Amino acid sequence: MNQILSIITGGGSKRHLTGSLGMAVHGCAALVALAVIYTTTFVYVDLYVMMVVFLSAMLALLFINIGPGPLGREDRPGLIDWCLVLASIAVGVYFLVENQRIAERITLLFPLETPDLIAASVLLALTIEATRRTVGFGLTSVVLVFVVYNLWGHGLPGALGFREVSYNHFLDIMMFTSDGLFGVPLRVAATYAFLFVMFGTFLSKAGGAEFFYNLSSSLAGHRTGGPAKIAVISSGLYGTMSGSPTSDVVTTGSVTIPIMQRLGYSKPLSGSVEVAASTGGSLLPPVMGSAAFIMAEYTGIEYRDIAIAGIVPALLYYLCVYAQVHLRSQKLGLRGLSKDETPPLKDTLKTGGLFIVPLVALSGALLMGYSPTFVAAIATAVVLVVATVQPSTRMGPRAIWDALAVTTLRMVSVVAACAAAGLVIGGISMTGLGGKFADLVYLMAGNSAFLALVISAVLAIILGMGMPTPSAFILAAVLVGPTLLSMDFSALQTNMFILYFAVLSAMTPPVAVAAFAASAIADASPLKIAIGAVKLAITAFIVPFAFVYGEGLLMVGGWQAITVSCVTAVLGVLLLSIAVEGFWRQPLSRLPRLGFGLAGLLFITPSWWAVVAAMMVGILAILATPHLRPHLHRKPA
């Protein structure tokens, strides 16, 4: 019984396929990537048809590569897995063959035929099982709750009740329209999210990840706290390509965490630095991760505008982490790397400097207003050109084929999560739960916009504890977004606010997935790592409130207002970092520490009176600190 419960409540285990089966799966994955490139950049394909075929192929690959749980075989799929693979392919073929009839029928007016009901039911079950295997019981339980609520929630009393929805009605909306399974999240996963992951994969395979690490080492390795600063810079640069905090931790943390520990960093601290740095990568333009792509599709805001708006908050995030790493290293007396351990900057740029070109091309194409799909395709092509120019990083046909396959396999779990999120969103729309939840937030917050923001932030973090960032963002946006929009916050402010807390959930205790990934490398408690990471990135929990009340930090408004907002925010972040660490040249006593913390918060607050008050409090805190106090009188000779 315990083993059965373990399979049901736990996630699946990734298989390590070898031999002819491994080669066949690898080849199929590469073909899927080629099909995505072809259908998104070269020809027009009906979007519904494309998503049906894409989801069918990804589910088949998922059931081959990910087992049902701890009892599943790790070397090859079992009988049940092959049955699920065949079912995935059969469903995809059915929807593809019947596409013309499905497209011409009127939803809810023309009844579904029996084969339609069977195919849709099978696809629903496959999606739920795929979600369980890839994400675990968190998101799966949410999906199941919404399915049950959609089918039987009409019996609930009061506001939670709604008009009865039959099973046929449920499947018609969920599987045969773009409002359910094939909604915004899956549409994003099948198009430009896939292509941006491909860009990051090609850049990494060509040697870009190694170059960014060497560049970080050249710039900061020899300074105080050098290894930790390398982690901050390299993880941020790599994280904006991978778009996944957990993936970033595993990739860069395997190098940076052992180096930090070798030079005296404690196990929890080394893990915390890596988790804080990696999590911020999903907020750092120009890529920012899948959740930002979903935000662009869901809100209609151009991705270029989202990337521009994210520049200052992301830089403030890394300024906070970097400043605290510097102060902590000074406080603990931690040295940097020796000159022999850091590559010369000139040599680093000479051997890999061309890898900056793809990022410049990507950023430039975004600023010129090209679509994210085109931008990702162009940036990937530039990576291939750069890799060809440099003999040491040249990618041959085999390396390109491998990068295509790796891209598809990396997207498997993302696709499952996005499909599940589509089911939940469809259920929310079908039952009107979004409006009812908005009424609940109104009831809890009253007329307080600040309290509504706090509720929204908490909800985004809680959702993110049980599911990937894209799913957490879209669910929070659907549930609380309308409430914040009704309080005169703009769509950009509202959704950037929700995006930030959805991303931060990856490192927020108690279920901090990025911290659990780091704990295996650092050999430390995931809870201690998560608490340390939140402390290092404390500004990220404050800045969203600032840009909601003042758009200057989102690069909206006149240049004077933007400049003032940025300058005061930088001062606020630095003072907050000092207060959190309790150190500035020497340890600080409690009163100055509180003063610096209050001054930091006031500087970040978008208000002139707050800036004036911050200056006064900051001056008083300096005067209350003996080793910082200015010498007002010269000593007699």
UniProtKB/TrEMBL annotation:
Source domain of life: Bacteria
TRAP C4-dicarboxylate transport system permease DctM subunit domain segment(s): 124-543
Record-level GO cellular component terms: plasma membrane
Cell compartment(s), UniProt: Cell inner membrane
A Pfam family matched in the record: DctM
Keywords: Cell inner membrane, Cell membrane, Membrane, Transmembrane, Transmembrane helix, Transport
First and last residue of the signal peptide: none
GTP-binding as UniProt keyword: no
Ranges annotated as spanning the membrane: 21-41, 47-67, 79-97, 135-152, 184-203, 306-327, 374-391, 403-428, 440-465, 472-492, 498-522, 529-549, 561-584, 596-624
Membrane association type: Multi-pass membrane protein
Predominant location: membrane
Molecular function terms, GO-annotated: transmembrane transporter activity
Function: Part of the tripartite ATP-independent periplasmic (TRAP) transport system.
Stored PANTHER family: BLL3936 PROTEIN
Protein name stated in the entry: TRAP transporter 4TM/12TM fusion protein
